[in-house]
Amino acid sequence: MNSCGVCVSSTPYISYFRSMDEEKKNLLRERLNAIHHWPSTYMYKFIFETNPDKVISLKLIFGESAQFITRESSGGKYTSLTIKEIMMDADSIFSRYEAVGKLEGIISL
Question: Residue 13's closest CA among 42, 47, 41?
Fold first, then answer.
């Protein structure tokens, strides 16, 4: 993550979750549980170089029940994808981020 807390590549973000010990995961889980009453709508935001295949890959990870809002940058070089999905618990959120982390070139905000 950069100094603003933004993940600048999928690999470090996944490494962050994989390297997170159980104590840190529990703290993050507690924070999520404090602000969400499960099931709850959770919003994800990703940015990547415009590529229809990446949009398809993300839609396959999240499924048809999720809401997708796509927006291209003014020059069309980048696409942002906001995804809202009803999640059952904090661990299901972790699972989604881990799945997205396997895709190259996706920035998670």
Answer: 47
Q: What is the pTM of this model?
A: 0.79
Q: Is residue 3 part of a domain?
A: no
Domain that holds residue 50: 10-108
Does 33 map to a domain?
A: yes
Nearest residue to 54 (alpha-carbon basis) of 72, 39, 29: 72
Question: How does pLDDT run across 6-63, given as a tens digit for each residue?
Answer: 333 344 444 456 567 888 889 989 999 999 999 999 999 999 999 999 999 999 999 9
Bridge partners (DSSP) listed for residue 81: 46, 70
- Asked if residue 5 belongs to a domain, the reply is no
In this prediction, residue 90 has a pLDDT band, given cuts at 50, 70 and 90, of very high
